[in-house]
Amino acid sequence: MNHKVLYIEDEPFLGKIVKETLGNQGFDVVWETAGAKVMGKLTSHIFDICVLDIMLPNLDGYTLCRQIRKLYPALPVIFLTAKVETSDLVKGFDAGGNDYMRKPFSIEELIIRIKYQIQLNGTGKDKQRQKLLPDEIKLGRYRIFPKRFEMEAPSGMIRLSNRDMEVLGMLASNCNRVTDRKELLLNVWGDDSYFNSRNLDVYMRKLRKYFREDSSIEILTLKSKGYLFRVPEKD
């Protein structure tokens, strides 16, 4: 899967070089030269990261970043700027930036930073899924907080990984119905390879361990089918 980059830069020569170089590295790049057009792109595309020049015509990068944050709070943003003052760097982070590169910059370093931010923050599809999750799910004696990646068990709070939450989210959306194993693998890992299948087994063992304080909750493996996440019916 190619990661989708929203790139905002008003310098035509630099913009063309960066777009072509990122494209040659396997990124899917949407390049805009004016901040006013960016919000329309954000509502019609799912991006994994935004690379944003601060000095833009009509709408500066700081203001644009704040607008982006209101729509997609978790989308990673890398600022590019010719500004050198520390106060400008602080202003960038205060506006919601995740990283900051001063011009002139190495495109190789930019690629490394893009990959790091995507790895750290997840993909755009991850963010879209996260946005659709409820604030709280009640399952027996447990309360799940998907957007906080936490589970409240009778004995205390359990911190969940992103992958824990993805697997649990699919099971929870199919309570007391069969969740197809292949569908789960394709939705969470992107393919149903042997390696990912073994990974799924590990996560299932973890989830069973998390739910062991409530005997009314079970994750049953149905051979050649998938999983039945059995939870008590609500009154």
Please, could you describe this protein's structure?
With 235 residues, the chain is an alpha/beta fold. It folds into two domains: 4-129, Response regulator (Rossmann fold, 3-Layer(aba) Sandwich), CATH 3.40.50; 134-230, Arc Repressor Mutant, subunit A, CATH 1.10.10. 43% of the residues lie in helices and 22% in strands. The chain is built from nine helices and twelve strands. It has a five-stranded parallel β-sheet, with helices on both faces. Strands 6-7-8-9 form a four-stranded antiparallel β-sheet, with no helix packed on it. It has a three-stranded antiparallel β-sheet with strand order 10-12-11. The longest helix has 17 residues, at 194-210.
Index terms:
235 residues; five-stranded parallel beta sheet; elongated; alpha/beta; 2 domains; Rossmann fold; Arc Repressor Mutant, subunit A; four-stranded antiparallel beta sheet; 12 strands
Overall pLDDT level? 85
How does the major sheet shape up?
A: 5 strands, parallel
Low-pLDDT runs:
none
- Indicate the proportion of strand residues: 15-25%
